[in-house]
Structure formats: structure tokens, C-alpha cells
Amino acid sequence: MDGVDAQIAEWRAYVTKAPAVDGRDVDELEAHLRDQIDELDMAGLTDDEAFLVAVKRIGDLDTLSREFAREHSGRLWKQLVLRGEDEPARPSSGWFEAFVLALAAAITIQAARLLADFPGEPPGWLLRNLGLFVLPFLAGYFSRRRQLDLCGWALTAAPFLVTGLVVNLYPFRAGSATELVVGLHLPVVLWFAVAYPYMGGTIRSQERRMDFVRFTGEWAIYYALLALGGGVLLGLTTLILEPIGTDVAERVVEWVLPSGAAGAVIVAGWLVESKQRVVENMAPVLTMIFTPLFAVMLTVAAATYAVSGFTRAFDRELLGVFDALMVVVLGLVLYAMSAREPSEPAGLMDRIQLLAVMSALLLNLMVLGSMAARIGDLGFTPNRIAALGLNLVLLVNLAGAAWLSLRFLRGRIALHGLERWQTSYLPIFALWAATVVAVLPPLFAFT
Amino acid sequence: MHIDKDLVAASATPLVLAILAEGESYGYAILKRVRELSGGELEWTDGMIYPLLHRLPRLGYVTTEWRSPPEGRRRRYYAITDDGRAALAEQQRQWLTVTRALGDVWPGSGGLATAFGEA
């Protein structure tokens, strides 16, 4: 049998290299191969013959790998492996396209800056249109990459045109609160508009939605890394140029910072697309580190508040802080989910995550309770409605997630149920942000 | 007889679920059972059963576990869940409808379809 064992080891090494097949799949395939060889041996074939027949029966590795990729699309970028024979191979990883679009975004933002005479008091239109200067290029990048047809391109462009009209035709009063709220929510709306070309137009597919969630998380990681590197570079440049005159250094920052920040949006998108594996190894580790830390922080905070209550006067910024907290918790939940191996049973990490979610919910409920008690004398302002609405949208999402993961931990439902909840919920976030952009300003007479 | 690729693909999930409804099993044994049931007419590429088997736990249709029986090698076993049985029952209804419709419209095979429908 030694000869066969050596052959199997060789075959194993070869199969392991297939990108979508992981170690345990190979174990399973090897058990299959050995079963088949045993049976063929029994039928009177020699070891060599049995091995050859068994390998042949398992099938062509490329096709198999492609099937595994279709099933475990989370393990790798679908396009890397799913490139069928009918699709033309992309010679480069598309860096040139990305570079051109990043440059275009940088130039656009620079032109807008010069037009607005920033830094100085930035005019309202600059703030309102910020997302529109950058994100269309990202959408364009994905439209090209996914080779959308004309109709796809039109549907990609539509949300950008509509929001562009909305934010620029509304008669905002200068420095009004609604203008600020719109400026903050528009990038969120546009980010969801990027989802359309990203998913190649298949917005109903739950799997592609999960891919987009994963993309968002990985994009954020890359963007943070780029920002960090850019910050160091700018800091050093300022220090080096300082002897010439602080004026020169300031000028450099003025020119480089906005362009860099805009270009990095596209570059980060390209990095996620082409250097997938780098982040793929990093993301589960990051979730593993931060989920317990957040769980501890949130539990302590919830316990403290439960004991002390909100004694200090209700701070109007507090709701915004809790919104941010819930967004981060939701991000952790989504990210942990998308990076998880779906077939694995519930484990310690899932419990810790549930603890974090429950504590966040508890904290949030206390804040809402104390706010409801005082809603009378607080009154409604655009800021408060936007913050409150976001809070409720997040609250419902996390409450649903907590309930489902409780059922998952008890073995009542599969992970699939949890994933479905999150992917089906995504349009609600988009809808809320769109409501804030389109409905809130007229409601408050653009003040 | 060569059976069309799409038909093989469409019947794969109900077939695997039905086999698991007979009792828990592993990839190789499931494949053997498929060959047995179809008299060797349904030809699957062996490896392809695994991506299919991995889809089922995610949908909650089966549970899976690695086990080494006292005699024999370590294998990954799959067992059907209640959800899986429900999905199987639904698939059964759909297939029966299709076969009945085909049987009604194809001359000379009516007897077969009726037998199918009553089974």
C-alpha cells in the first residue's frame, strides 16, 4: 500500500493548492478516494490502476474547485476562480483602471475645493455633494469590472443623478441643520448605490449581498491602513518642508489631503478586489480580538448605567454616541458572520458576540428610555429625528440578530437564518438614509 | 442512456435528501446508493457531491459531523434535519406534479405516471 499512500500524498498536495478547497474538504475527498480505491482493489484492480480510476472519478480539479467556490464564495473572490471559459481572462488585475478612476476622483475633489475656496468657510454645496464627488467613480469602477450592459450602466447612474438633483435643487438655507444631516446621510445612500454594480446587478441574491457586506468591511480596513500610511507621509512632509516656511507646508497639505482621501476610496476598493487574500487572513483575527474586548466594555458600561442610571442631564450628543456604538457592534456582528465558516457549529465566539449585542441593546434601551421621558421638552429637530430614526433602525436589527443567534446557539435554526435576516435587512438601512436625504429637509422647511 | 446535465443537477438535491432520510451517511456511500437506485444511469462526477453536501447544512437541511467508527476510516457524516424532511416533502410534491404532467401529455406512458402519482 506504500506506493498508493505516496501517490495519495502527492494528489493531496496538488488538490490543496486549489483556491476554494480548504483542508477539511481535502480530508473528506481523501476519505472518498481511499474508499473508492479499497473497493476497486477488492474488484481485482492493482493499486496503481485503482488509484488512477479513483482520481479520474473524483473529477477534473478545475471544475471541482469552481463548484466549491460557488458554494463557499466567502472563501475567496468569486471572480478569481469562477472565471469560466466563456469569460475573457483579465490580463492585469485592473490596476490601471483603478488608477485612472482614483486620479479622476482626486481631480474632481480638487476642482470642487478650488471652486469652494476651501479652507475658508466651506459653502453648503461642498458638504452636501461630498459623496457625489467620489463615489460615482467607485461605481464606475465596478460597472466596468463586472462588465455591465447598457441597462446596468443606466441603473447604476440613476441613483447618483437623482440624489444629485435632490440635494442641489432643494433650497437649503445657509448653514441649516438639514443641510448637515443630508451631507452625513448622502454618502450612505451612495454607498448602497455602489452595491448595485458591485453585485453585478443581481441585487436580489442573498449571497452577493453578503459579499457586499464583506467588501464593505474589508474596504474599511484597507481605507484605514491607507489613511494611516498617508497620515505618516503627510506628517513627515510637513516636518521636512517646515524650514522653508509654514505656509508652504500648509499649502501642500491643502492640496494633497483632499485628493489623497478621495483617491484612496477607489484604491481601497481595488485592493479589496485584487488583494483579497491579504485581508481575508487579517479580518477573522481582528474580529477575534475585538469582539471579546467590546463585549467586556459593553457589559461593564451596561452594568454601571443600570446601577447609576442616567443621573447627569441628558446630553444631546449622547444619542449620536450610541448610534456610533451600535454601528460598530453591528459591523462586528456582520463581519464575524461573513468571515465565519458556515458549516461550523456554534461556539464560544458566538456566545461572546451575543453578550456584546445584548449589552449594546440594553444600553441603548436605557438611553431611549431616558430620552422618551424627556421628549416633551427636547422637541424635534432634524438632528434628533435623524439620530432617533437611525437608533430605531439599528435597534430592530440588533434585537432580531440577538433573538436569532439565541435560537442558533440552541441549535434551533441554521446559520443561514441569521445571514438571511441581515442580508434582507440591508435595504432598510438604504431606505432610511434615502428618507433622511429626500424627506427630512422639506419637512423642516430646509432650516 | 445519457441523462441531460440539467436534469441530473435538478434531481441531485432531492435524491441526496431522500437517501439521507433513510439514515445518516457519508459522501462515498451516498454516491454508491445513487448508482444503485438509478441502475448506474445517473452518472455523477464523484467530487461534485461535496459542494452539494456543503450547501445543505447552510440551508439547515442536514447536520454534519466528523466521526471515526471503530472499524474504518474517519469520515464526515451527514444526517437529515426536520427542515430537511420538510424540504424533501416539498420537492416530492413538485416532482410528482412534473412527472404527472409529462405522463398525461406523453402518449403511451399514462399508466406509468398514474402509478407514480399513487405511490
Task: Explain what this protein looks like in three dimensions.
The complex is a heterodimer of chains A (447) and B (119). Chain A has 447 residues and is mostly helical. Chain A folds into three domains: 2-82; 93-274, no CATH class; 277-413. Chain A is built from 18 helices and no strands. Chain A is globular, with a radius of gyration of 26 Å. Chain B has 119 residues and is mainly α. Chain B contains five helices and three strands. Chain B has helices at 5-21, 27-37, 49-59, 82-105, 110-118; strands at residues 25-26, 62-67, 75-80. A three-stranded antiparallel β-sheet of chain B has the order 1-3-2. The model of chain B has no long low-confidence stretch (mean pLDDT 84).
Per the principal axes of the C-alpha atoms, what is the gross shape of chain A? Answer: globular
Domain count of chain A: the total is 3
- First-to-last CA distance of chain B: 25 Å
Q: The CATH topology of chain B, please?
A: Arc Repressor Mutant, subunit A
How many helices of chain A? 18
Q: C-alpha Rg of chain A, in Å?
A: 26 Å
The average pLDDT value of chain B, as a whole number, equals: 84
What is the SS-derived class of chain A? mainly alpha
User: How does the major sheet of chain B shape up?
Assistant: 3 strands, antiparallel
Order of SSEs of chain A: HHHHHHHHHHHHHHHHHH
Superfamily (CATH H level) name of chain B: Winged helix-like DNA-binding domain superfamily/Winged helix DNA-binding domain
Indicate the percent of residues in helices of chain B.
Answer: 55-70%
Low-confidence stretches of chain A: 76-91
Provide the helix percentage of chain A.
over 70%
- Which CATH first-tier class of chain B would you pick? Mainly Alpha
Written as H for each helix and E for each strand, in order along the chain, the element string of chain B is HEHHEEHH
| Major pleated sheet of chain A | none
Main interface pair? A-B, 28 and 22 residues
Mean pLDDT rating of chain A: 82
